[in-house]
């Protein structure tokens, strides 16, 4: 009875899910190839792929609601309520969102990679360091004296950075 009643909706659902799965597969494949091409570590590539998968899942939920006949007004009320709550909650953690967004930008357009020695031209604390890891929230830097510094992703995009040496970890084992 259920399958006969919702035959058309189930067909559209299958088509939508197939298209989104195919799009997700192709997108993740492109991200992995780009990451491999630029020498980005596997954990970082997997993190960006998770972001894509979660985004596509949320898009699929929205489309499925329309397929099964939910009115736009109903979805608008739900989304406005959810976004109002999230907006208030995210205002308190805006720096976390800023760092995650910066982490995604760093993945796609950052000219430096793990192992490179860089100089950050910060007026307060200028530093020379080797990039040990680029995470979702921060970049781990190893200073010349051996100290580990976690530098927020949003600040690394705001400050001028100079590449001193490519693959400094391989060439400089004392750090």
Terminal Cα span: 69 Å
Mean pLDDT: 86
Broad structural category:
alpha+beta
**Biggest β-sheet, characterized?**
5 strands, antiparallel
Low-confidence stretches: none
| Percentage of residues in DSSP E strands | 15-25%
Q: Determine Rg (CA atoms, Å).
A: 22 Å
- Provide the spatial order of strands within the biggest beta sheet: 4-3-2-1-5
Tally of helical segments? 7
Helicity range = 55-70%
Number of strands: 5
**Topology as H/E string?**
HHHHHEEEEHEH
Shape: elongated
Report what the structure shows:
- By secondary structure, the protein is of the alpha+beta class.
- Helices cover 62% and strands 16% of the residues.
- A five-stranded antiparallel sheet has the order 4-3-2-1-5.
- It is elongated.
- The mean pLDDT is 86.
Give the structure's gist in a few sentences.
This protein has 175 residues and is an alpha+beta fold. The protein has seven helices and five strands, in the order αααααββββαβα. The radius of gyration is 22 Å and the shape is elongated.
Layout of helices and strands:
Elements: H1 2-5, H2 7-37, H3 42-67, H4 72-92, H5 94-109, E1 117-120, E2 127-134, E3 138-143, E4 148-152, H6 153-158, E5 161-165, H7 168-171
Task: State the main characteristics.
single chain, 175 residues, alpha+beta, 5-stranded antiparallel sheet, 7 helices, 62% helix, elongated
């Amino acid at each position: 009875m259920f399958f006969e009643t919702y035959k058309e909706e189930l067909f559209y659902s299958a088509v939508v899910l197939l298209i989104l799965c195919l799009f997700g597969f192709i997108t993740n494949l492109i991200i992995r190839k780009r990451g491999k091409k630029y020498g980005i570590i596997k954990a970082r590539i997997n993190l960006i792929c998770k972001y894509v998968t979660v985004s596509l899942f949320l898009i699929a939920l929205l489309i499925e609601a329309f397929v099964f006949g939910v009115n736009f007004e109903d979805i608008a009320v739900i989304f406005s309520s959810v976004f109002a709550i999230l907006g208030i909650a995210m205002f308190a953690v805006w720096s976390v969102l800023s760092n995650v967004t910066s982490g995604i930008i760093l993945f796609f357009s950052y000219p430096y990679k793990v192992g490179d020695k860089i100089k950050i031209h910060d007026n307060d604390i200028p530093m020379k360091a080797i990039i040990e890891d680029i995470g979702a929230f921060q970049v781990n830097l190893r200073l010349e004296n051996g100290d580990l510094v976690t530098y927020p992703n949003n600040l690394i995009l705001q400050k001028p950075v100079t590449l001193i040496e490519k693959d400094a970890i391989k060439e400089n084992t004392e750090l």
